[in-house]
Write a structure and sequence with these properties.
Elements lengths: L1 E3 L4 E3 L2 H7 L3 H4 L14 H14 L3 E8 L5 E12 L5 E12 L1
């Protein structure tokens, strides 16, 4: 999954769509917090983004997402920042590896 600097989902692969139960048009343009488990704070994603930005490298974390139908997905997540030609971050790539289904 790829998000922009405003935390909006800009790309998601078919496997992730299938796992989350969404169609592409239902999720593209939505904030990543849309698929975040209710128990997770919206600030967690912001913290991960800032950690990746300040360290200028990928970060690893365990984070909970949810399906369209509310099922919790605990994931090992790797977040990698993307830097534009101007040196500023312009988005992030998320890789999720399920811990529990």
């Amino acid at each position: 999954m790829v998000i922009d600097a405003d935390k909006k989902i800009t790309m998601v692969n078919a496997a992730t769509l299938n796992l989350l139960g969404y169609k592409k048009e239902e999720i593209i343009g939505k904030k990543i917090t849309t698929i975040q488990d209710e128990e997770s704070s919206g600030n967690e994603i912001q913290k991960y983004m800032l950690d990746a930005l300040h360290n200028k490298k990928s970060i690893n974390a365990v984070h909970n997402f949810k399906t369209k139908y509310g099922k919790k997905l605990e994931c090992n997540m790797i977040m990698t920042p993307h830097f534009g030609d101007d040196g500023y971050v312009d988005g992030y790539t998320f890789y999720q590896d399920l811990i529990h289904i």
